[in-house]
Amino acid sequence: xxxxxxxxxxxxxxxxxxxxxxxxxxxxxxxxxxxxxxxxxxxxxxxxxxxxxxxxxxxxxxxxxxxxxxxxxxxxxxxxxxxxxxxxxxxxxxxxxxxxxxxxxxxxxxxxxxxxxxxxxxxxxxxxxxxxxxxxxxxxxxxxxxxxxxxxxxxxxxxxxxxxxxxxxxxxxxxxxxxxxxxxxxxxxxxxxxxxxxxxxxxxxxxxxxxxxxxxxxxxxxxxxxxxxxxxxxxxxxxxxxxxxxxxxxxxxxxxxxxxxxxxxxxxxxxxxxxxxxxxx
Length: 281
What we know:
Elements: E1 2-3, E2 7-9, E3 15-16, H1 18-48, E4 75-76, E5 85-91, H2 98-109, E6 114-117, H3 119-124, E7 137-140, H4 153-171, E8 177-178, H5 187-195, E9 199-201, E10 205-206, H6 216-226, E11 231-236, H7 244-248, H8 250-259, E12 263-265, H9 267-272
Parallel strand pairs: 4-9, 5-6, 5-11, 5-12, 6-7, 8-9, 10-11
Antiparallel strand pairs: 1-2, 2-3
């Protein structure tokens, strides 16, 4: 309560002079300011201990000159086109039983595809793909299928570089595309991809094997119905047993899509025939 003479009654009924009130206000304001500064400095200090620069969250690696390849990066889910084009992609191989079956089916129908290969499996099973990829395209799917989005930029680059070299040696051509495991993108993934002059390729339609147990024909009909022009279709030539539903239905899928007027192309062929933006790679 304010009384005559500029005095203020305090909580206990005592009187505070104007000078005391103003002094208290100044101390309060100063405390707020110091608190804000302290919080800001505390956050700054805490950030210095986080793996930001060059870490999983960061697409930069500090304040020195960066090696960034062509300087730009394209990330693709789908191709903008009205042409009935579809890019069939296979992840996680090569593996015995799976990959030869897929390659045999594609050869029988003269269908090209893009294989996102795991480097360690390429090193172990190079004979499965050597000499069999003439009509196909290869991409880099990491060395051991770890979640690259959890790794620092330098670790991601080392992982992809190791896989890159193994794929180039076995396939006879260096990959120009990468697809991170699980489709997880982190700053380190982006930075490593631009260093290697890759395009990052995800997908706009995925096989749904779990919805069609023991029904390859039903699964094929579902995929055929869902494809639209410019679709990048995710399949696998490795994995749990239920994925064999898609492999066993691959003949019907190809036949069904061709009946709808679709032409199969590799991812790079698809992107070269569309008008979407391109950077790097």
